[in-house]
Amino acid sequence: MARNTDNDRSRLDDAARAGWLYFIAGNSQDEIAKKMDISRQSAQRLVALATREKLVKFKLDHPIARCMELALRIKDRYGLDYCEVTLTDPSSDDPALGIAEVAAAEMEKYFKSDTPIVMALGTGREVRGAVDQVPKMYCPQHRVVSLIGSLAPDGSANINDPITVISDTIHAPRHPLAVPVIASSIAERDIICAQIPIRRNIDLAQSADIAFIGIGELNDTPPLLTDGFITWKELKSLQAAGGAGEILGRAFNDKGELISGETNDRITSVTLPQPANRPIIGVARGPDKLRAISAALAGRWVTGLITDEWTAEALLR
Amino acid sequence: MARNTDNDRSRLDDAARAGWLYFIAGNSQDEIAKKMDISRQSAQRLVALATREKLVKFKLDHPIARCMELALRIKDRYGLDYCEVTLTDPSSDDPALGIAEVAAAEMEKYFKSDTPIVMALGTGREVRGAVDQVPKMYCPQHRVVSLIGSLAPDGSANINDPITVISDTIHAPRHPLAVPVIASSIAERDIICAQIPIRRNIDLAQSADIAFIGIGELNDTPPLLTDGFITWKELKSLQAAGGAGEILGRAFNDKGELISGETNDRITSVTLPQPANRPIIGVARGPDKLRAISAALAGRWVTGLITDEWTAEALLR
DNA sequence: TTACTTAATGAGCAATTATTCGTTAACTAT
DNA sequence: ATAGTTAACGAATAATTGCTCATTAAGTAA
């Protein structure tokens, strides 16, 4: 069990202090140990804790020519308003590595605005990774709204919903969508979405000033399946219908056209305009998602893309 | 001699790439070496270059209870609108360590504004350190203006003037004050300051939305002396008149009252309102400056202060 | 071309940092 | 109170990183 929170807090304080001395003041862990009057090992542990808990953030502030060029070409080729390309670590399989940091910086930019905005968020590891990177801020003027249900198939609410996290981070009111992602029938979907509070959130989400969404793959192990939102049979039938990817649970083919029927009819998530007519930023990278991203761009589901070097190069081939 | 710039650029690109793989992707230098197909030592050098050139920025994102509390008490005690307290590295003698990063973040906040602002800057290592930390941005809507002359005693223009640097960093028009810091006589000062272009800049600076200034000490080795702006004799006479510190070259006593006569009459720098009636942030820390900071606060020369834990504690004693 | 200067390189070594493991301390639930 | 569980700790050691130095490559001036 965890000790009391006070203890945790002061330990994090110590970690922050150690991390500061290490990264900003450039001390060795030995020096930190002396200054904080702890053992060298403890100093090491505090520094590790500070990085693990992301108390210390690293930011790369240099325009890498190759990435700039790729971003420009992607924007041009796919008619995007916005594109950001970050580096690739070929050996990492973290689907959010790099792009999460960039997406977080972009989100932060919006939050810094004085005029109130509404930000809509999807789910997925990329969006989740991004909200984790946003620094603590105080902006009660903004609102954050979910684009997709937060109830797991077993009915449990997802406490780690990006909306919950970001709302706590920036101290803004949240509007989660407390509904199952996929209803058991079309009729049920209609009933759920017709409920006044739900309806209101959906309306809010549809009028959001900016949206960040993941783009999901529909190969044999998509999160949709492994998280239990759809069955193996449903996946197979989406694939058979030409499913290339999904956004907010809605599957589309390689041209980016919605697949009709199947689970698509029972999805409760917010319907995005196609082609996108307001800022919708897709956050995705990696070989697994290449086909899905390409299809999403073809279908003009997004107006912006945050991806990595490898994916950008592949998209341009 | 330096090789061509293209070479430098691509080396910095490589450095950024290595730094990214190291700090963000968490690779070891060995792994980086393999991925970039260079030797381990080269990888190490690139990572070092990336940190040295500040391509990778470290940011601490955790409210350290002690610093928050000190900031609150300073604000309260000295009637400031704004105060930020950062950590202290007792063994470092860098006068800007820590506070430069905080000041840079604060500047960035202003620059992120869409509505055009005018930012006025003083000189000194703290302000210089801060502008060095501001990331590249594109904000031609803002203007930056100097509060103090940029001509050294020998008549040479200071290419490393904070105004020049920040103007390049954020791509905003600059308004330097191309005059000697101290004129040789009161009459000369008046003539210099009456020139139309100079006059215009001074007016602009006086209407700035925000100003960041250093606070200088008047002990036996102040930068004013070592940089040759004033003579040993002038320093002694300022000290004899009770000089406790200086802002923009103007000396004041422990109560923060301007010393009359002496070099103060020949200073060409912009006159700040006393007490300050618009946002003026002082950036200073350290035992050497304690007396000067205390005097500046007493005289209400600033509405905000960025300092460190040690100085904050000392100011509250 | 030749001599000279500067920068980049890799080897070897020193210093620092990370991990593992056994022990102790602190809390929890009975 | 007591057994059980978890976190923190320091020692030892493994791994990584930083530095020095001799050498090579590349550019520069005569």
Overview of this protein structure:
Two copies of one chain form a homodimer. Chain A is of the alpha/beta class and 317 residues long. Chain A has two domains: 5-52, Arc Repressor Mutant, subunit A (Orthogonal Bundle); 65-315, Rossmann fold, CATH 3.40.50. Helix content of chain A is 43%, strand content 13%. Chain A has 13 helices and eleven strands. Chain A has helices at 5-24, 29-36, 40-52, 65-78, 99-111, 125-133, 162-170, 186-194, 196-206, 223-226, 232-240, 290-298, 309-315; strands spanning 56-60, 82-86, 118-121, 143-146, 174-175, 210-214, 216-217, 245-247, 250-252, 280-283, 304-308. In chain A, the strands form two sheets. In chain A, strands 2-11-10-6-3-4-5 form a seven-stranded parallel sheet, with helices on both faces. A three-stranded antiparallel sheet of chain A has the order 7-8-9, covered by helices on one side. Chain A is globular and about 65 Å long. The first copy, chain A, starts with a helix and ends with a helix. The mean pLDDT of chain A is 92. The A-B interface holds A 9-10, 12-13, 15-17, 19-21, 23-25, 27, 31, 35, 50, 54-66, 86-87, 89-92, 97-98, 101, 109, 112-114, 135-136 and B 9-10, 12-13, 15-17, 19-21, 23-25, 27, 31, 35, 50, 54-66, 86-87, 89-92, 97-98, 101, 109, 112-114, 135-136. β1 of chain A pairs antiparallel with β1 of chain B, so a sheet runs across the interface. Chain A binds a DNA duplex (30 and 30 nucleotides) through residues 1-3, 28-30, 39-42, 44-45, 47-48.
